[in-house]
Amino acid sequence: MERPGERVCRGYLSSTNVAFLYPNKVARIARGKLTYADRGRINECAARIDAQWRGGSFNGLEYFHFRFPEQGAIMAAFLLKERLHRLVADSTLAATPEDIEAEWQRMAEQRETILAWARVNKALIEIVQTYRFERRQGAYSSTAHTAAAKLVEQIDRSVADPMTYAGVCIEWAEREHRQWFWRCAPDHQVL
Questions:
Q1: 183-189 contacts: CB < 8 A, separation 24 or more?
Q2: Going by C-beta distance under 8 Å and a sequence separation of 6 or more, which residues neighbour residue 66?
Q3: 110-168: per-residue pLDDT in tens?
Q4: Residues 185, 40: Cα–Cα separation, whole Å
Q5: At what angle do helices 141-155 and 162-176 cross, to 10 degrees?
Q6: What is the Cα–Cα distance from 26 to 64, expressed in whole angstroms?
Q7: C-alpha distances in angstroms, 26 versus 18, 54, 139?
Q8: pTM over cut 0.70
Q9: Burial class (CB in 10 A: 0-12, 13-18, 19+), 66
Q10: Largest Cα–Cα distance in the chain?
């Protein structure tokens, strides 16, 4: 971990740098609300594990990035033990470990269904490119994600949750084609 008195500078890092410097990522299902006390416990635990940790949110998940695998394992265990996953939208209801496991399984199956839908409709690249185009124009991730979701609606009005569909496609492209994915900033600077 960190030596006493070591200076920590958080500062801005690009997504590529975060992935390189903090390769161990832990996710928390974040559909519901946390109390301020819960948020404080999470931040305190993450800082205890590694004062230089990084975080972010996307598509209903909150991510914690750490430098070492054991740090990620400690955080994952903490989130589970303290029941800090929230499965129900706009609720503070804590989930049981069994509910969380079932939800991860459901989400994995949903991801495969969405990717198959995108491939059949030849929409995967178009959805991702919409997101990348918006980011290149200077839009925040949430705005670019909304634009990609609007494209999903145009492609198939029967899709009940276009934001999730767009998010799954975007996450797939970022994971599978990271270097290409982030070359969407003006003048080809990596975001």
A1: 184/132, 184/133, 184/135, 184/136, 185/135, 185/136, 186/136, 186/138
A2: 22, 24, 25, 26, 49, 50, 53, 72, 75
A3: 999 999 999 999 999 999 999 999 988 888 889 999 999 999 999 999 999 999 999 99
A4: 33
A5: 120
A6: 5
A7: 13, 11, 26
A8: yes
A9: buried
A10: 57
